[in-house]
Structures are given as structure tokens and as C-alpha cells.
Amino acid sequence: MDRPRATVGAIIVREGKVLLQLRNHRPFEGFWGFPGGHIEEGETAKEAVVREIKEETGLDFTPEFLLCSDEICPEEDWHALVAVFTGKASGKERPDPKEVKELKWVPVKEALKMKLAFRHNEVLERYIGGRHA
Questions:
Q1: Total-model pTM
Q2: Which domain holds residue 99?
């Protein structure tokens, strides 16, 4: 594995459903997970999550920091520290086909039963167990 990467992700929930995307590239190609991506040079984590959500989903996102999580996934040769945000999203969904095969809103309890990309199951459990229960 290379040095850990700095990344962001977003838990966007509407009416008891969380927004998931079907990944169209490695790592975890073909898995469902939260939208997000890499923090670029000179960019804050908050700026990165707003940009990534817009790029990947077409939605405008108003982020609120939630937690940091280690993503150590030797099976995918992946190591990152992810800043996870939650917040409101608005606009029309337009997934970027280079990165996203499909977007869907999944009931949170159903999402917990899915095998999500990275360590997103653990992050979603922490989200539910916190003030967002």
C-alpha cells in the first residue's frame, strides 16, 4: 500500500433514505458506497466534499462535519483517512458516468445490511448510533 490518502465522503439522508452510488472504478468497483473522493492540493476537506458531491451526483451540498474514519482495506490495496460529512443536498441528480454507474436512495436500515465499499458500513453504524439516530 502507498501512503495514506486524504479523502472525503458524505452521508446524505432524505426521508429515512441514504444516497448511495454504484462505483464505476477501482477501488471497490461494482460496490455501493457514499459519494466522495480525494482532497486536492490547496483544498479544504469541506471544499472537497462540496466539489466531489457536485461532480459525482450533480447535487449541491451543504456539509456539516460528522467524523473521521480510517479506511484500511488491504484487499483493495487502499489506505486513506476520510473526513465524513453529513448535510442537505439539493438540485437534480446527474451521476458522472466516469465514476458512478448508478445513484439510488436506500432505506438506512437496508443500507446497513448491504456490503458497502470501503468501511462505509462501520461509518453508517456510527452515524446512526450518534445524534442522527
A1: 0.91
A2: 5-129
